[in-house]
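Final report, Chapter 2: Outcomes

The project's central promise was a pipeline that accepts a single protein chain and returns its three-dimensional structure in a standardized token representation, suitable for archiving and comparison. That pipeline is now operational. To close this chapter, we reproduce one record exactly as it appears in the project archive, with the input sequence first and the structure output second.
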Amino acid sequence: MADGICTLANDQVYHQLVALLNSIEAMMGADFPVCVYPYDDRTERIQAEIAHRPSVQLYADRGSIQQWDQFVRQVWDVHPTARQRWGLSDPNSYYRVGTHRRFCAFDAPFDRFLYMDADTLLLNSVGPIFQQLETHDWVVYDFQYKDPTHVYEVNSPKFNQVFAENRVETEIFCSGFYASKRDLFSAAQRNWLLSELRSGEAEILYPMAPDQTLLNYMVMKSGRSIYNFALELPSEQKTGCCVTSPGFTEQNHLLYDRGNRLTYLHYIGLSSSLINQVCDGENIEFPYRDLFLHYRYLQQPTQRPIYNRPAKSYDAAPSLSSRVFRKLGLVR
């Protein structure tokens, strides 16, 4: 059985991708297989980077990519308000449509896979995650269940008809880190999901997080068994995972939450433009910057930027989303 890690990228997130690949190699070894799904056709730098990484491949099955592109467009074509919310009048335009190409992991190349967003770092072994796939279809480790408003249109009259409250409280997840299996959604299964969405259920999808809402709907509507470490682990063993958590302790280029080693760190909310500026030599501080730079330049330490000007903060005051997340307990 072939296991591997998948991610989604284009040249805009090149620096983040390199940091992720280096963290995977540091945690799992140089031979652990990785597949990068192309967000779009801007992959020249990525291809040059992975040319010397024999265990990393850029997904090239155009039939698979086009199949999922078509499925996603069909989904959003039946949503009653998505195009207005996106501010798009062109019927051929879709918001962040490339994010859905992570769905190609259900086709190939791995029998079992862990998907990680490009703006994450792996900080521990993935063994326990794949172990849970022996008895579950879907494995996650996040606290998104505390905030369903970024997953579904919870005020839709249909929402509670589709998913019972207890399922919402325990099954929703963040789409930035999850493990699953090949062939989980066959063509027949996708057609059934489309028919359910066309019957009126499309209105519960949250169009401003298009891949996250659709992935949650697909998994929950299909009744897949879900395991969330954040719900299953004893409270004294749980860790956070978001860069907005201020209380992590760094030791030997790893992070700990109250003595427990993090599985991964998600630099959520930090734009690729910011990361690119920092890697181009601008002295902009952001949480756990040194950790990111360590993994980004792990194989090229002499290329790590040296900052000669005083640092400026990426965000002097906490953003509204950070304050909301902290209030909701999504970060510690």
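Archive annotation: Residues 62-77 form the longest helix (16 residues).
This record, like all others produced under the grant, will remain available to the consortium after the project formally closes.
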